[in-house]
Specification:
Largest sheet: 6 strands, antiparallel, barrel
CATH architecture of the largest domain: Beta Barrel
Strand order of the largest sheet: 3-5-6-9-8-7
Structural class: mainly beta
Number of domains: 2
Helix content: 10-25%
Number of helices: 2
CATH superfamily of the largest domain: predicted glycosyltransferase like domains
Distance between the termini: 61 Å
Number of strands: 9
CATH topology of the largest domain: Thrombin, subunit H
Length: 162
């Protein structure tokens, strides 16, 4: 048994590859203490922290189909008249960026204080997105309102997944 262990330890050097030199730091520098030679191979370092997700990204966790997008839009809060047929703008327009989207919802941050069930008119600069959406989720953060809004009507091909 001891002989097998000695053979294993003796042959171990033939099976393991030699360490490659660290090209940034040069060759490891051996130093001696008594008869033994010590080689410093490891250097202490800290790993960079993971990038923090945005507050909109945190809300997107609740929408499994959400895809990251960057679509600049302008929105206004609108209210419907008594017969619910014609929307009437009832707020100042605000520019924002849709950060996440599904086939039915958009998620973005804004400074306008919005509430659940508010109706928004969303428009992008080229007019390919011009629709209404109802607020389905709101998170309030200092200086920002994080919103998820669901389209009131079907919007075909506004987001395409490959």
């Amino acid at each position: 048994m001891v002989l097998v262990l000695l053979l294993f330890l003796h042959n171990r050097g033939f099976w393991l590859p030699k360490a490659l030199p660290n090209r940034e730091e040069g060759e490891p520098k051996p130093h001696q203490k008594g008869r033994k030679v010590y080689v410093n191979l490891a250097y202490s370092a800290t790993a960079p922290a993971r990038a923090q997700t945005s507050p909109v990204g945190e809300l997107a966790r609740f929408f499994p189909e959400a895809t990251p997008v960057r679509i600049p839009v302008q929105f206004t809060r609108s209210s419907r008249t008594g017969d619910c047929s014609q929307p009437v703008a009832s707020g100042l327009p605000e520019n924002t960026v849709i950060e996440f989207g599904t086939s039915r919802e958009v998620l973005f941050a804004c400074t306008t204080p919005l509430e659940f069930a508010d109706v928004l008119r969303l428009r992008n600069s080229d007019g390919s997105l011009d629709t209404e959406a109802s607020v389905v989720a709101v998170q309030y953060h200092p200086g920002a309102t994080i919103v998820a809004a669901r389209f009131l009507n079907a919007v075909p091909n506004w987001i395409v997944k490959s």
